[in-house]
Amino acid sequence: MKLPSILKTYCPYCRTHTEHDVKLEKKGKASSMRRGTRKYNEVKKGYVGSPRTPKKDVYKTGKRPLAILTCKTCKKKQQKAYPSRTKKKPEIK
Ligand SMILES: [Zn+2]
């Protein structure tokens, strides 16, 4: 998947369409103290293995690229997640 290096899109801070610099970013690691993890640790208490059904053998192929857009006018950043999955490594033209 190829992404443009400059994208003209809406900036919520300027409230108009402005030019943005596109930079690819990896998705951050989920927090270990988030609600879902704390709840799962509570469920797991007292078990040797996992009390829930084991993980599937089939995993989703490909990843959804996450782009960081920087407004050229106000230098504010915003995230843009692409809805489709891609097997090829995303690159900027
Ligand atoms: Zn802006």
Structural class: mainly beta
State the end-to-end distance.
10 Å
Give the name of the CATH architecture of the domain at 1-28 and 62-88: Roll
- The geometry reads as elongated
Which CATH class of the domain at 1-28 and 62-88 applies here?
Alpha Beta
Q: Name the poorly predicted regions.
A: none
User: Whole-number radius of gyration?
Assistant: 19 Å
How many distinct helices?
1
- Summarize the main sheet: 4 strands, antiparallel
What percentage of amino acids are in beta strands? 25-35%
Question: What would the average pLDDT be, to the nearest integer?
Answer: 87
User: Percent range for helical residues?
Assistant: 10-25%
How would you write the strand order of the largest sheet? 2-3-4-5
What pattern of helices and strands is seen along the backbone? EEEHEEE
| Small molecules in complex | zinc ion
CATH topology of the domain at 1-28 and 62-88: Nuclear Transport Factor 2, Chain: A
- The tally of strands reads 6
What descriptive keywords fit this protein?
binds zinc ion, mainly beta, 1 helix
Describe, in plain words, how this protein is organized in 3D.
The chain has 93 residues and is mainly beta. The chain has a domain at 1-28 and 62-88: Roll (Nuclear Transport Factor 2, Chain: A). The protein is built from one helix and six strands; from the N terminus they run E-E-E-H-E-E-E. The protein has one helix spanning 35-44, and strands at 2-3, 6-11, 16-25, 66-71, 77-81, 91-92. The strands form two sheets. A four-stranded antiparallel beta sheet has the order 2-3-4-5, with no helix packed on it. A two-stranded parallel sheet has the order 1-6. Strand 2 (6-11) and strand 3 (16-25) form a beta hairpin. The longest helix has 10 residues, at 35-44. It is elongated and about 55 Å long. 5% of the residues are buried. The model has no long low-confidence stretch (mean pLDDT 87).
